[in-house]
Structure formats: structure tokens, C-alpha cells
Amino acid sequence: MSSLTDLNEKIAKCDACRLCKQRKRAVPGEGREDAEIMFIGEAPGWHEDQQGRPFVGPAGQFLDELLQSIGLKRGEVYIANVVKCRPPSNRDPLPDEIGACRKWLDRQIELIKPKMIVTLGRYSMARFFPGATISKIHGTARNSEGVTYFAMYHPAAALHQGSLRGVIMEDMLKIPSFLTQAEAAAEEPSPQKAKKAEKMEKVEKVEQTEPKQLSMF
Ligand code: URA
């Protein structure tokens, strides 16, 4: 059993907060275990709770279209949520529920090791862009420790506010070039790695020259 499957089983049984009492199913997430891009939404809705799968309702249909617009299928990325169980009546998740679920998302990121994390909506953004405002930073990226974080409006926002549909579609189209940059950055040696390599080179040079010097005595 893969570590991610094992993790999903643990999430399915989680009872760390009140949301476990009313869920039909927990929704751990789905997609490629070695996905380069991870999309992170807010919390499951009714459809997701029924099926145990993320983004399978109307917002999910729009997410599928968005993925298609950049030549991706959901099976090629990883899709997860900040909170793994549906808040009653689709209310916003509460701080203690987000806190109780944090370890699951942390572990998913650790196992999948995505090069790019796309935050969908405010709750996901708050985790990776603390203090930011979605209307200001949507469509922008930041890099930290080799991972590119890219903020987007939640696809459901377009269902409530039609004018955001075009904005979300435009932001999505920026992902391929950010991903190319993220891939290039991941291949570049980090400053620490470059220093280590420099040191190793010096040691090798000394090892090569020392026997010659010794032979002179
Ligand atoms: N909205 C989310 O944030 N996540 C889902 O899985 C579905 C809708």
C-alpha cells in the first residue's frame, strides 16, 4: 500500500473535530501521487461528501474545464482541500476545524512534493499567503523553498459572480509558464547545494595536487 493510500485511510477515520459527526464520507483528495501541481480548495460540499471525492459538483465541473484549458486532466494533478469533511450547510470552516485538519494537508504535500501549489479561494490562500487579500493577489505567484505558490479565486466564485469567470480563466492560463519556471528552479542548485559543490570541488583539487607536492620531499 502506498503511503498516500495509507494516509487517505487515516483521514477517512479521522475524528479530530466536530465535522466527523455529520459527514457521510471524508474527502482526502485524489490524483497523481507524484503530481507536479497540487490544487487546494476549501472544504467538501454536498456532492463531495456523498462521493468521498474532491470537486465533483458544479465547482468541480468548472475546475475540469479550467484544467482542460491548459491541457491537463484531473488525473494528472492532485486535488485536495484545506478541510477534509463537509461543514454543515456548506458554512465556512472554523479556525479549530482548519487547525485539526492541518496535519493531513501537510503530510499530503510532504508525500506528493509538488513543484507548484495552486490555492483555490480564501481559505487555501490564507494558508500559503498569510495576510493576503484574494482580490489583490489572484493570478500572482511566489516561490518558497523550491515550491511555487499561485493564488486563484475559488471556481465556485464564478458560479455566484459571473464576472469572475473570465478572471479565473485568465489566471488559469498563467499556470503553464509558472510551472515551467518552477521546473527550471527545481533543477537549479540551491545556494546551499552550490556552496557544498564548491567545497567538494576544492577538496578534490587538494587531493589531486597533494601527492605531487609530497613527492618533492
Ligand atoms: N469546494 C471546495 O473547496 N472543495 C471541494 O472539494 C468542492 C467544492
Helix-strand makeup class: alpha/beta
Number of strands: 6
* Morphology: globular
**SS element count, helices:** 11
Strands of the biggest beta sheet: in what spatial order?
1-3-2-4-6-5
Biggest sheet character:
6 strands, mixed
Report the portion of residues in β strands.
Answer: 5-15%
Please report the distance between the alpha carbons of the first and last residues. Answer: 62 Å
Radius of gyration: 22 Å
SSE string, helices as H and strands as E: HHEEHHEHEHHEEHHHH
Question: Quick gist of this model?
Answer:
Helices cover 53% and strands 12% of the residues. It contains eleven helices and six strands. Mean pLDDT is 91; it is low at 209-217.
Write the layout of secondary structure elements.
Blueprint: H1 3-12, H2 19-22, E1 30-31, E2 37-41, H3 46-51, H4 58-69, E3 78-81, H5 95-112, E4 116-120, H6 122-128, H7 134-137, E5 141-144, E6 147-152, H8 155-160, H9 164-172, H10 175-187, H11 191-215
Parallel strand pairs: 2-3, 2-4, 4-6
Antiparallel strand pairs: 1-3, 5-6
The protein binds uracil.
Uracil binds next to helix 4.
Please give a structural write-up.
With 217 residues, this protein is α/β, with parallel strands linked by helices. 53% of the residues lie in helices and 12% in strands. It contains eleven helices and six strands. Strands 1-3-2-4-6-5 form a six-stranded mixed β-sheet, with helices on both faces. Strand 5 and strand 6 (147-152) form a beta hairpin. The protein is globular and about 60 Å long. Mean pLDDT is 91; it is low at 209-217. The chain binds uracil. Uracil binds at residues 41-45, 48, 54-55, 57, 59-60, 81, 156.
